[in-house]
Amino acid sequence: MVRWEPNARGRLEEAALELYLERGYEQTTVAEIAARAGLTERTFFRHFADKREVLFGGAAALEDLLVAAVAGAPETASPMEAVVSALVTAGAALQERGPAARRRHAVITAHPELRERELIKLATLAEAVAGALRRRGVADPGAHLCAEAGIAVFKMAFEQWVAGGGVAFAGLVRDLLGDLRTVTAG
Amino acid sequence: MVRWEPNARGRLEEAALELYLERGYEQTTVAEIAARAGLTERTFFRHFADKREVLFGGAAALEDLLVAAVAGAPETASPMEAVVSALVTAGAALQERGPAARRRHAVITAHPELRERELIKLATLAEAVAGALRRRGVADPGAHLCAEAGIAVFKMAFEQWVAGGGVAFAGLVRDLLGDLRTVTAG
DNA sequence: TGTCGTGACGTCAGTCGCTGTCATCACCCT
DNA sequence: AGGGTGATGACAGCGACTGACGTCACGACA
Questions:
Q1: Is the CB atom of residue A49 positioned under 7 angstroms from any atom of strand C?
Q2: What is the second-level CATH architecture of the domain B8-54?
Q3: Lower Cβ count inside 10 Å, N or C end of chain A?
Q4: Residue B139 touches chain A, beta carbons under 8 Å
Q5: What's the whole-number mean pLDDT along residues B157-165?
Q6: Are B183 and A142 inside 8 Å of each other by CB?
């Protein structure tokens, strides 16, 4: 007999997402999440820093993916091309987890506290991408701006992808990038 | 005899900023802020939704300023030109409150919870600017992108302005906009 | 001038997010 | 067999935040 069921962290993530969808974020208690996962409140806080973080377990993996894609872009690629290739790669990973990503996004957009957390995750992502660009030799005001613009495009493409039906993520990214070019040139 | 000293809200803002600088954000209690302002904890929460919001009282005014500037830009101005003129206007207002803005920024950058709040305020700003652009007849993917890019430039210009000595805000905005053009074109 | 509503504040009690501390016990290594 | 390790439970406690209710200066209005 095992003393504890495996994958406590995953069970907590799943229980939290379910409860946030059922009753809303503020109406659900950490103790309730833990109970549904067969654990205690104290154990929840050993796995996640706070009540919000339980929804953002995949952020680190996404960051690694983006950074690796930027670093792995061909040397001849311009900074923006490197970032776009990273966004397309991330989009492909997203398409696989379609339903989960949509449910998660529905909860987050409904609660300002969770939107805050998502925004700081995106800012961290942008900072990581900027670092990857600097490692490609891009100078600093440009690297930062390029990363910031890329993440903005990513965010908008994601929202359009969630809203629309089965649109291809890569196409949204390229369209938005074209619009961005047009707008900044004016 | 007056029953209460006037400007309770302002006293709370001042006391909070002082204490956050003296002891750090997490180490100061809402009860301590209220006590320094000669009030009770309960009254603090009547003026501000939470412990962070006390630092962001000026956000609404900044939003009004930006929206008015975008709306007031000449009809011949391109969307990006309208946004830039708004940023320059906001920068001028910022230059006047120099020391206060720097102290406030020092506290915010030192604490992730406050950075979260600042990011959502900036996102709200971007949404308001996008709305103002739409009212000028700019179509929606472009309006949103333009506002998003403008706020990103604003954020970076503000950071450079805080770090550097007495640099002119408007110059920073224009330089960054040039870099953004270069980077997105690539 | 008396009265009455209103708004800003105080007081109190309570919930919940989050933390520190210590005990427990299956598992692994030797 | 014995000891170390890591994940968990149990418990106490702090502080952020809320709801309900009482208090009192101030202004409107008769």
A1: yes
A2: Orthogonal Bundle (1.10)
A3: N
A4: no
A5: 91
A6: yes
